[in-house]
Amino acid sequence: MTDDKKQKRIGRGPVRPALGALSGLLAGFAALAVAELVAAGVRPQAGPVIAVGGAAIDRTPTPVKDWAIRNFGTNDKLVLQLGILAALVLFAIALGVFALRYRRTGAAGVLLFGVVGAAAALSRPDSTGLTDALPSVVGAVVAAVLLYFLIGRLRIRGPVPDAAGSAEGDPSRAAGWDRRGFVVLATAAAAASAGTGLLGRALSGSKSREAAASRADVVLPAPASPAEAVPGGARLRVRGVSPFTTPNKDFYRVDTALVVPKVDATTWKLRIHGKGVARPVTLTFDDLLRRELVERDITLTCVSNEVGGPYVGNARWTGVRLADLLAGCGVKPPSKGGRADQLVSRSVDGMTIGSPVEDVMDGRDALLAVGMNGEPLPFAHGFPVRMVVPGLFGYVSACKWIDDIELTSFDDYDAYWVKRDWARQAPVKTQSRIDTPKPFARPEAGSVMVAGVAWAQHRGIDKVEVRVDDGPWQEARLAAEDSRDTWRQWSYDWRATKGGHTLTVRATDRTGEVQTDKRTGTVPDGASGRHSVVVTVE
After folding, report:
1. How would residue 11 be classed by pLDDT, with cut points 50, 70 and 90?
2. Are 448 and 494 in contact (CB under 8 A)?
3. What are phi and psi of 307, to 5 degrees?
4. What is the C-alpha R_g of the chain?
5. Sheet holding 269-274, edge to edge
6. 3-state DSSP call for residue 421?
7. How far is CA 175 from CA 7, 222, 468, in A?
8. DSSP H or E run through 532
9. By three-state DSSP, how is residue 307 classified?
10. Secondary structure of residue 443 in the 3-state scheme
11. Which of 146, 279, 381, 492 is deepest in the core (most CB within 10 A)?
């Protein structure tokens, strides 16, 4: 078979659609790379993947979000990003194949990428204006032009003369498509896109490095009011039970940020304003560090935590009393004639969280935290500053990367999660969890230590009981209490007999409320019910 015949087969056979698909992929790659570079100059959060991902999170129905958190945990953001990239790949492939027949229409179709990305970026609560649309728009225009020319290399028909005017002088261009031209253009596009993407990452990374450097330079002053030493009896020596203090690396993270914000502490500012604020103020990070710092052990719980779930942890927080800051601005709680009953905290990524003013000013250790377990806050947990309010679920109290506090009322404003069918006010429910033995464990008959944690922040745990199968409730041994704002470990020495058994736990808080056996889901104000595990004793 002659070279001409081989190349005609390439031009007409199954390889041609594959080359169209490759053209679409290269155009998509170019779009993302250029958008990444432009976003580095505008705002990293304006990049199309982050913007579309954030918009998708905002518009995802609550049950779907709950399912994602339940099944993917802190990896839910990674799964979403991979899903977006997979959709872009399929879209690019389809456009490339379509453009083989409809070249201009296919190239113009790439602009849909820009429209979707731009609309998503502009719809984000942290959008800074029309410039947020630039990364997606510029990326789409470059991709459309590239696809048009790549497809052009596949659509040439008949012999094409070489520089000397002879059609026979250039065999690569004599059989229906410009193989050499396509290869050169595709290779150049791939290399340029890779370089552009790396440059964009480097520029964005420089801002992250500046933020990291600002964190590394932070020296937390010694707290004026240090936390009490944790009682020796607060930490049970039982294998498998959650440690009393959760290490930073193991502390749960549940939020809507597709990419963890990297905030430079040297440029960070917090504004306090709104209804009933007689003296509005703007504070820098150094301003906070110069104020009186307190240190407290506080357990936090996410409202998405199902019965027996992992989204609860205890840490030692260092920060400024929020009530003192508010009082300094002239704010009074509603019980003392204050005009505002809701404190709306805003994050640098646009998240809004509404907290009851009465609760944050009732004497509990509600903090603007700057430290966690003896070090500056990790970026994933809100550096440089976050809110911590004991006794309230995180979605109504624990704003991370906070940069604005507005005093308003629940009647005037619904925060992010309230708009999505969650309750306006959400005190933590009395809960307990079995950490050991694990579900479906196969312990040996005899003495088996059953242990776990129980919590009812700002009320405290008074009693924990364990039941084996349908037997009577047996009181467990409680570890010493650190404070009513922290969880308590507990243990029960079970004389296990052979066979299958169900172990169930319940807690009673300091008000006398017994953990209910009524099972409810997490929406609208947190799950309820009793945790149980099934084991087989051998």
Report:
1. very low
2. yes
3. -55, 125
4. 30
5. 281-284, 269-274, 402-408, 342-347, 352-356
6. coil
7. 6, 78, 80
8. strand 532-537
9. coil
10. coil
11. 146
3-class state of residue 303 by DSSP:
coil
| Residue listed under structure tokens 């149980």 | 532
Contacts of 309 (CB under 8 A, 6+ apart): 70, 433, 527
For residue 174, the model assigns a pLDDT of 41
SS3 content of the chain, % helix, strand, coil (to 5): 40, 20, 40
Residues in contact with 326: Cβ distance below 8 Å, sequence separation at least 6, in sequence order = 272, 343, 357, 360, 361, 407
Cβ–Cβ < 8 Å for 319, 367: yes
The full 3-state SS of 124-187, as one line of letters, equals CCCCCCHHHHHHHHHHHHHHHHHHHHHHHHHCCCCCCCCCCCCHHHCHHHCCCCCHHHHHHHHH
Cα gap 201→51, rounded to integer Å: 16
In the numeric block, the tokens 């009074």 are attached to: 332
pLDDT at 256: 86
Question: In 10 A of CB 224, how many CB atoms?
Answer: 10
Q: Phi/psi of residue 282, each to 5°?
A: -125, 125
Q: Looking at this protein, which amino acid is placed at residue 72?
A: F
Instruction: Give, in order, the Cα–Cα distances in Å from 335 to each of 358, 432, 479, 524.
Output: 7, 33, 36, 26
H or E element: which one contains 18? helix 15-42
d(CA 199, CA 205): 10
What tens digit of pLDDT does each residue of 91-122 get?
A: 999 999 999 999 999 999 899 889 999 999 99
Q: How many residues does the chain have?
A: 538
pLDDT given for residue 14 in this prediction: 54
pLDDT at 15: 65
Q: How close are the terminal C-alpha atoms of the chain, in Å?
A: 73
The predicted-structure confidence for 134-158, as pLDDT tens digits, reads as follows 999 999 999 999 999 999 998 755 5
Tens of pLDDT, residues 163-172: 444 444 444 4
Helical (H) or strand (E) element with 466? strand 461-468
- CA gap 433, 437 in Å, rounded: 11
Distance (Å, whole) CA 478 – CA 244: 13
Provide the mean pLDDT of the chain: 91
Region 444-467: mean pLDDT is: 98
C-alpha distances in angstroms, 94 versus 33, 100, 382? 20, 10, 41
Q: Cis (ω within 30 of 0) for the bond into 524?
A: yes
Question: Is 466 within 8 Å of 496 (Cβ atoms)?
Answer: no
